[in-house]
Amino acid sequence: MTATTATPADTHPAAPNEPVLLPELSDTGVLTLTLNRPQVFNALSEDLLDALKSALEAAAKDSAVRVVVIRAAGRAFCAGHDLKEMRAQPDRAYYSELFDRCSAMMQMIAAMPQPVIAQVHGIAAAAGCQLVAACDLAVAGDSAVFATNGIDNGLFCSTPSVALSRAVARKHAFEMLFTGDFISAGRAAEIGLVNRTAPDNRLDEATRDLADRIAAQSTVTTRSGKNMFYRQLGLELEDAYDFAARNMACDMMSEDAAEGIDAFLEKRAPVWRDR
Questions:
Q1: pLDDT tens for residues 134-148?
Q2: Is 27 exposed, middle or buried (0-12, 13-18, 19+ CB in 10 A)?
């Protein structure tokens, strides 16, 4: 299965001297990071990995950023690692360092306080599928397809398997990893790899609606909530409830919690302190 559909705004090729990542911050606090290597289906080169990690690190410290969207220019979201770049340096130490850099960038997504949404069109393969799985949320165009297809090239998608196996049920992840088959956007939604799908020509709109919906919430609450969500996942049930109870008691002391509850009781819209 292949995918060549692109949204109209994404059909132009990037000039050789254009940056590999294009950031744009909206007035609602949504930071859009656009992968900008369309001529190679946004393959994750060393430069692009570093640019993504730097942008995420900067966003994590920026109080003006409430939500991050990762999208891509051209006909595909991301075809995975830049295999041409990798084959040019057949050295184990180089490969170890490269995959460590990629893993650090993927982990940054979970570690940063803001929710991160993948906006997917065309192909998301191998490390590109890993990027989707690593994001907190994902919206896909109807024609998007997903695969962890390294096995077809004699290279098991080991690092993508970490994110994938944490995003979907084990048997679904295993099938994708061991067959290399592409799955449709609809199937990706069924197994939990993406949250929702949208017609290709409304993908930007659907993603922005979700991003703005989250950005309109209390920033104090969303940041505390994301930290709590990921920390409790690694705990045993009793410890998770203990941590969650302490976290919720702490959150109850915030100004936004008091404002939100008062607004509910008074049947009015809340006014968050950071607005």
A1: 999 999 999 999 999
A2: exposed
What is the C-alpha to C-alpha distance for residues 13 and 260, in angstroms, rounded to an integer?
A: 46
Instruction: Tell me the C-alpha distance between 259 and 271, whole Å.
Output: 7
Amino acid type, 210: L
Sign of CA dihedral 34, 52, 76, 187: negative
- Phi first, then psi: give them for residue 204, nearest 5 degrees: -55, -45
What does the alpha-carbon distance between residue 94 and residue 86 come to, in Å, rounded to a whole number? Answer: 9
* Single pTM value for the model: 0.92
128 burial (CB, 10 Å; 0-12 / 13-18 / 19+) is buried
Q: Are 172 and 191 in contact (CB under 8 A)?
A: yes
The strand ranges marked E within 122-247 are 123-125, 137-141, 145-147, 183-184, 196-198
Nearest to 57 by CA among 124, 9, 103, 113: 113
Report whether 157 contacts 126 (CB < 8 A).
yes
